[in-house]
# Entry
Amino acid sequence: MSRRFLRKVINVVALALSGLATAIGLFFLGAILWTLFSRGLAGMSVMLFTAMTPPPGGSGGLLNAIYGSVVMTVIGILLGGPVGMLAGTYLAEYGRTARISSVIRFVNDVLLSAPSIIVGLFVYELLVIRMGHFSAIAGAVALAIIALPVTVRTTEDMLNLVPQGMKDASTAMGAYPWRTITSVVYPAARSGIVTGLLLAVARISGETAPLLFTALNNQFWSTDLNAPMANLPVVIFQFALSPYPNWQQLAWSGALLITLSILILSITARFVVARLNPGGQR
Amino acid sequence: MNTAAAIDPRHAAGQRLRERMFRAATFVAALLVLILLGGVALSLLHGAWPALAHFRLHFLTSEIWNPVTEKFGALAAVYGTVITSLIALVIAIPVSFGIAIFLTELAPAWLKRPVGIAIELLAAVPSIIFGIWGLFVLAPILQRHVQPWLIDVIGPLPIIGRLFQGPPFGIGILTAGIVLAIMVVPFISAVTRDVFETVPDVLKESGYGLGATTWEVIWQVVVPYSRTGMIGGIMLGLGRALGETMAVTFVIGNAHRIGSSLLAPGTTISAAIANEFTEAVGDLYTSSLVALGALLFLITFSVIAAARFMLLRLERRALSSV
# Structure
């Protein structure tokens, strides 16, 4: 009788602890969001989106940083996205069973979790030293390298979900594989691929480490891709660690801005998946 | 497509050409993934060469990091990297395990999805946000409420007391470990949950049929079945923690020294690179930082490769049992 009681107690305690663990995880998400809102909202104003980053003590906004982040993220996804989709297509279609594909999959998984600061060092060695100066294009290339493995992975997974019967039907019509892929497989997997791209954008738009020594930062308005360009993450980094209250306020507002955009992107991506796969688990 | 076009030889030749080109394009893109990894390894080695040739093995065994006298050793940074990641795992493993249990075995169906998504969103928050939050919110709380308690209560104890001595700085190795723990929890719990979900219902039902409690089924059926996958997930989290840069840079204190206390400031490989790279003067200094990067690449590559290998083996087993 007492043994049975003990087992029940252990069961209840263990399950309560697992509930507690979940509460802890949710608590930290809530705590971080609460901090961002309570400190960042104070600095939300029209000027945030219309004025340049100010000198210490002056008033200003984040316009050049927002512009730089958008430009580098867009170029990054334009460079990394299509290449990633093609590579994913190879893994899912042409090279599905090829021996080299398993090597590529493995290497891609390694790249997927590789530290982003390493990518920054790589692009520094590859581009910044050769060009002789920091530049927006180097920053965009670094972001592209981070976006690439994400797109490869999601594209392959999504193409694998397309039923074989659809491809067979197209082949039976006399279509070459490229025609089947572009006219049947891609449209069928469209929302999945878009999700992958959205997740890649969410991933690279908050990256700081790879931009530190590629795009660097720029206190002024610059549209020159061949020159250092301001960007939100590096501005947040520099301003948050500065002793000036107006810079710190801008850092919090920038942090709120970037987190909200990324969370909205991630949630949108999930809804696209849900629509694609309504009967699915996740 | 009209049939006349399909049998037109010129049309067929065009189709074949496009087929070859498309196929080649996908293959080249796939090869690029391999080239990228090779390129990263080679360029790091190239950049690190001057420092490695100059310091040789001393680079790995010396904790002195002095830009003025141009003496550079990686030991303090490697120590900080390993210790902060270990602290992160010690905290994150039980929490992630609990979350995975809650999501697979405990939560009612309507709660599973929102809670799962919320935990995953924690993974989407950029690391720099964890950094400023850690510095401005977590560190003061630790400094005022947690660290004095650790120093008073655990500090006087023999052996483990040495880990909790000295003044409460707020920032330091322990704080960095805690922030890293929060960051890797979503990764480890996501993998663990997915692995738990692969356990066949029949196995669990047999456990319940024998009269086992929910916890006994989890501990004696689910966990043994998913051990490899869980270890893979943990090592994936470890790889994440080892290479994490921005969050750590904010809260580690950036001191190239090895102290016995976890409350003291330290540094990690990635924090040292992020802090010093753009300000490094002289080829030897820059090269030493790249050498640190190469070391980090080597460490994380081995950990991630081992993790992927374990998860891959698990996938094969799942496929063969279907």
